[in-house]
Design brief:
This protein is mostly helical and about 70 residues long. It contains two helices and no strands.
C-alpha cells in the first residue's frame, strides 16, 4: 500500500487532536485557599505601591539630593 499524505491539512490536524488527552482540571484544596487569598491581597497591595511611582522616572539611589 502506497503512502498517501492527507490532501487537507485541517483534516490531518483534527485526526492528531483526537488522540490528545484533555488538560486536567484540578480543584483547589481547602487547605490552600487561605494562602491563595493572601497572595491575592499581597498582589493588590504591591500593585497599589507600584502605581504611586510615575512611569519612566529612574532614581539611582534612595538618598535625598544635596541642596
Amino acid at each position: 500500500m502506497a503512502h498517501r499524505p492527507y490532501p487537507n491539512a485541517d483534516r490531518a490536524l483534527r485526526q492528531l487532536d483526537r488522540h490528545t488527552p484533555a488538560a486536567p482540571t484540578l480543584a483547589m484544596p481547602e487547605c490552600l485557599r487561605p494562602m491563595a487569598e493572601s497572595f491575592a491581597r499581597m498582589r493588590q497591595r504591591n500593585q497599589a505601591i507600584v502605581t504611586q511611582f510615575p512611569v519612566g522616572e529612574y532614581q539611582l539611589s534612595a538618598r535625598r539630593p544635596k541642596a
